[in-house]
Amino acid sequence: MSIQQSDVLYTAAATAENGRDGRVATHDGQLDVVVNPPKEMGGSGAGTNPEQLFAAGYSACFQGALGVVARQEKADISGSTVTAEVGIGKNEDGFGIIVKISATIPNVDAATAKALLEKAHQVCPYSKATRGNITVDLAV
């Protein structure tokens, strides 16, 4: 289900120069980073790369979704963390990505943690945007 332009609450904008071997900056000046391919892909590894930026955004968004679900379920997720591991590799069309979302939720049992993760995956905007396009594995 998509949203209409009139329903947009916030828009982030960033501009990249020289693709994977250059710089990317947000228009509001809050982020300005050198980007470079990782050594595994022939780069120097200096600076960040798009996969790290995607992992940072996805983990933050997913943690937020986990908070929404936890409030609905009245579950205590204080002290929880969410890690997104974003891998890139060759596929039939050139390159693709794969994601593993891992959560540590110390105040609930494993079954509850898994259920919360599954529900967060249904409401997280990043998960919705990538559903059906990339493999996303969930782990507690």
TrEMBL record:
Name of one Pfam family that matches: OsmC
Domain of life: Bacteria
GO process annotations (BP): response to oxidative stress
The family this protein is said to belong to: Belongs to the OsmC/Ohr family.
NCBIfam families the UniProt entry points to: organ_hyd_perox
Official protein name in the record: Organic hydroperoxide resistance protein
Species the sequence originates in: Streptomyces lunaelactis
Lineage: Bacteria, Bacillati, Actinomycetota, Actinomycetes, Kitasatosporales
